[in-house]
Design goal:
Blueprint: E1 11-17, E2 30-35, H1 41-49, E3 67-72, E4 76-80, H2 91-107, E5 111-119, H3 126-135, E6 142-147, H4 154-170, E7 176-179, H5 188-201
Parallel strand pairs: 2-4, 2-5, 5-6, 6-7
Antiparallel strand pairs: 1-3, 3-4
Amino acid sequence: MPDTANPFSRVNFLTSAGPTGGLPPDDLPELAFAGRSNVGKSSAINALAGRKRLAFVSKTPGRTQTINFCDLAGRARLVDLPGYGYARVPQAVRDQWDQLVGGYLGSRGALAGVVVLMDARHPFTPHDQHLLQWLRPAGRRLLVLLSKCDKLSRQERTKVLKAARARLAREAQTAEVLLFSSHSGEGVEQARALLEGWLRAAPQE
C-alpha cells in the first residue's frame, strides 16, 4: 500500500512543456530539479520516487529538451528541467533551453524549491556556478545534491561535502547540501524528507 503521507510514493508523469508553451496551471507547489547533462538527475528523481522508469534515463547527454512535470499525490508537482552544459548540443538549441528554463525559474510562483545536482567528483563546473549565481537573487529554497558519491572513498566523500558547504557559505549562497547516490541509496531518505518539509511549508508562505 502506498504511504498516503508521502507524496513521492504516489508520483506519476503529468505533462511536458516546450518553448511553445504547455505549462500546467501555476496552482500547486513545485520542486524543480536542475543539473548538467548526464549528472544523474533522472536517476535521482527515480530514486526519490522509488521507481525505475518514471524519469527516462538516457546515456546520451542532452536528450531531455522539455520541462517534464510529474504529479505528486495530487497536491504538488515534481519538475524535471532540461540538462545544461553539454558542448555537442548546437548553440541555438542551448540558447532555447536557457530561455525555457530561465523563464520557468524566474516566473513560476508555485516553485517551492530547486534541487541542483552536481557530480561529487567534479562539483562547481562553470555551468553549475552560473546557475547558482542566477538562482541567488531569486531567493528560492535550494538543495545541492552531490551525486554519484558512491564512486568516492569515505574520506573523499567527507572532504567534498565539507568543501561544498564551505564554498556556498563563502559565496553567501543559502543551501542545504547532501551526498547522494541513486545507486547505493546514500542521501535518498534525507533528501526526500527535506523536500517533503518544503512542500508542507509551501501553502503557508
